């Protein structure tokens, strides 16, 4: 994944969760300056940091509800659908 894509995902996650950069830097173990460079796409994460970011973004409590539904449909051996009753 390109550095700009990591940055966009991190920024969107941080904003969705209502976090400041300081909270995310503590979680990932990086400085605020480096986190800022990641979010702007001017720096790329190392392999170890990529693994920590991926683990953070994929925790069930950090994913959007629709992402869980998409994963369920993609991995389900049976036919799945989402219906709305009005």
Task: Describe it.
The chain has 86 residues and is mainly α. It has a single domain, classed as Orthogonal Bundle (434 Repressor (Amino-terminal Domain)). Helix 1 packs across helix 3. The radius of gyration is 16 Å and the shape is elongated. One of its GO terms (molecular function) is DNA binding. It holds the Pfam family HTH_31. This is Helix-turn-helix transcriptional regulator.
Strand tally: 0
Order of helices and strands: HHHHH
How does CATH name the architecture? Answer: Orthogonal Bundle
Rounded to the nearest angstrom, the radius of gyration is 16 Å
Number of helices: 5
Residue share in helices?
A: 55-70%
Which whole number gives the mean pLDDT?
Answer: 81
Distance between the termini: 41 Å
Protein name: Helix-turn-helix transcriptional regulator
GO molecular function: DNA binding
Pfam families: HTH_31
Topology:
Elements: H1 3-17, H2 21-28, H3 32-40, H4 47-58, H5 65-75
Keywords:
Lambda_DNA-bd_dom_sf, DNA binding, mainly alpha, 64% helix, 86 residues, Cro/C1-type_HTH, 434 Repressor (Amino-terminal Domain), Helix-turn-helix transcriptional regulator
Brief characterization of the structure:
By secondary structure, this protein is mostly helical.
């Amino acid at each position: 994944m390109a550095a700009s894509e990591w940055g966009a995902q991190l920024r969107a996650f941080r904003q969705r969760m209502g976090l400041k950069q300081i909270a995310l830097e503590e979680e990932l173990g990086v400085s605020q300056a480096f986190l800022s460079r990641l979010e702007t796409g001017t720096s790329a994460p190392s392999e170890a940091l990529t693994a920590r970011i991926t683990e953070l973004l994929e925790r069930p409590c950090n994913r959007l509800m629709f992402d869980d539904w998409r994963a369920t449909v993609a991995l389900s051996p049976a036919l799945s659908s989402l219906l709305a009753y009005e």
